[in-house]
Design goal:
This protein is an alpha/beta fold and about 325 residues long. The protein has a domain of about 220 residues: NAD(P)-binding Rossmann-like Domain (Rossmann fold), CATH 3.40.50.720. It has ten helices and 13 strands. The strands form four sheets. A seven-stranded parallel β-sheet has the order 3-2-1-4-5-6-11, sandwiched between helices. A two-stranded parallel ribbon has the order 7-10. Helix 3 links the parallel strand 4 and strand 5.
Length: about 325
């Protein structure tokens, strides 16, 4: 029997990586839906699947989901720029569209695996645990928390399995388009610092580089999503490495991979809602997904920098030279 997976936001960083990984499996078909407002066709050059350019809540798409055309929906479509302050726009794109997808999936009992965010925790004390300290600092984080709350209402009433994945700081191949689409605002710190160094600039950090984040490599994010396709029950899970690392750690590891000692320019942080410390508690993740991360920060940065130095562009499983 062939699995037919729908990926919304499939031309984006995580969506394209998911598509490439799923197409390596036997008896699996993939359809991508993307409005290409932030995704990039270059991510799909070597990802041979059906691509439909439209909104994720397009009426025809929702009808297909409700009719049971897909064995699962992997919902990655969203506004991901956390600096956008238009509350209505954020809620319409991130939250309203998601509920439309859940309403359609309930009619066919179609599984939904969707992208949530560690932004739901705001600046609550780490480690970050599901159900605790869910106090987002901006409208982006609130839109994701609203999605998680909506998902719970649906899976308590309907048979379809719904799995939410709260991504922490994801990095890795496939995000290169972000420097063209949004001026690098949503690219990972690793990519931004790498590009600064390659341009001959001094790496810049917010004072004084001791902020701590849970950085998770794209291969682990793919693994968590694939585990979501086999989860035995619904729920929301953190997807991180389980360890917080400082921004200074990133610079140190980057310097090692580039074999260049790096000096840092420290600048003021202009964002009052900036998360200073995130760290994923993975206890619920292991219960729901039976999954745990495999990639350390050092191993992830090593592979990522190697691929960047080779001119890799696009998903981690395919090769596309940067043009």
């Amino acid at each position: 029997m062939t699995d037919h997976i729908l990926i919304t936001g499939g031309a984006g960083f995580i969506g394209a990586n998911l598509a490439a990984a799923l197409l390596k499996r036997s008896n699996t078909e993939v359809t991508i839906v993307d409005d290409f407002s932030s995704g990039d066709w270059k991510n799909l050059l070597h990802v041979d699947c059906m691509v439909r350019a439209t909104d994720c809540d397009n009426v025809a798409i929702l009808k297909d989901i409700a009719a049971g055309k897909y064995s699962a929906v992997m919902h990655q479509a969203a506004i991901t720029d956390t600096t956008i302050m238009d509350q209505r726009q954020m809620m319409e794109v991130n939250t309203n569209a998601f509920e439309d997808i859940l309403a359609a999936s309930a009619k066919s009992a179609t599984r939904v695996v969707y992208a949530s965010s560690a932004g739901t925790y705001g600046n609550s004390a780490a480690p970050n645990c599901i159900g605790l300290g869910e106090l987002p600092e901006n409208i982006y984080g609130f839109s994701k928390l609203a999605m998680d709350r909506i998902a719970k209402r649906w899976y308590l009433k309907h048979p379809a399995t719904i799995v939410g994945l709260r991504y922490f700081n994801v990095y890795g191949p496939g995000e290169h388009h972000k420097n063209e689409k949004d001026g690098n605002k949503t690219a990972s710190m690793i990519l931004q610092l790498y590009q600064q160094v390659k341009a001959g600039k001094t790496p810049r950090l917010f004072k004084y580089g001791e902020q701590r984040r849970d950085f998770v490599y794209i291969r682990d994010v793919i693994g968590a999503n694939l585990a979501g396709l086999n989860a035995k029950r619904s729920g929301v899970c953190n997807v991180g490495s389980g360890y917080a690392r400082t921004f200074n750690d990133i610079v140190e590891n980057l310097g090692k991979q580039l074999q260049t000692p790096l000096e840092v320019e420290f600048v003021d942080n202009p964002f009052p809602f900036y998360q200073m410390h995130t760290e994923a508690d993975l206890s619920d993740t292991q219960k729901v997904l039976n999954w745990q991360p495999q990639w350390s920060l050092e191993a992830g940065i090593e592979e990522y920098i190697q691929k960047l130095e080779q001119g890799h562009r696009g998903p981690v499983e395919v090769m596309c030279a940067i043009s």
